[in-house]
Amino acid sequence: MGLAATTDQVAWERRRAFYIESGSFVVRAHANHRLIGYAAAGMRPGFAGWGPEAPMGIIHDLVVTEPARRQGVGTLLLHRVRSELKATGAVALQLSVVRHNADALAFYSHNGFETIAETLGVALR
C-alpha cells in the first residue's frame, strides 16, 4: 500500500511539474470536501488546417474518479476548460485518447469532438 501511494505521488509530482513548465492550468471538482475530478489544459501554437496564428487549446488530462463518473462531473470540467481557453484566445481544442478507451471516446464524441488526426505509436524494447 505504501508503494502505490508513493508511486501515485511521484506520478502526480511529474505531471504537476509538466503543467507548471508548460504554462498549463488545472480545474478541479470536489464533492464533500474530496477531489472527484480534475482537468489540466493549456495552449499550443496552431498547425496546418487551423492556421499558424490560430492558437489551439490542448487538454493534457481529464480525470474523474470511478464513483463520480456519469454524473456530469466530466462535462462540468470540460465546460470550464473550454471557457478558460476561449477567454485566452484559443480557436479550437485538441486532446488525445487511447484508441481502446471506449468510455472516453464516447464522452468526447458526445461533447462534439471528432477525429482530426491519427497518432501512431510503437513500443521501444
Describe the protein.
- It is a single chain.
- This protein is 35% helix and 24% strand.
- It is of the alpha+beta class.
- The protein has a four-stranded mixed β-sheet with strand order 1-2-3-4, with helices on one face.
- The longest helix has 20 residues, at 2-21.
Properties at a glance:
single chain, about 120 residues, 4-stranded mixed beta sheet
Layout of SSEs?
Blueprint: H1 2-21, E1 25-31, E2 34-44, E3 56-64, H2 73-87, E4 92-94, H3 102-110
Parallel strand pairs: 3-4
Antiparallel strand pairs: 1-2, 2-3
* Count of individual helical segments: 3
The secondary structure category is: alpha+beta
Q: What is the radius of gyration?
A: 16 Å
Order of helices and strands: HEEEHEH
Widest sheet: strand order? 1-2-3-4
Largest sheet: 4 strands, mixed
Our measurement of the CA-to-CA distance between the termini, rounded to an integer number of angstroms, reads: 29 Å
What overall geometry do the principal axes of the alpha carbons give?
globular
Stretches with pLDDT under 50, minimum 5 residues: none
Beta-strand percent range:
15-25%
Arithmetic mean pLDDT: 86
The helix fraction, in percent, is 25-40%
Tally the beta strands.
Answer: 4
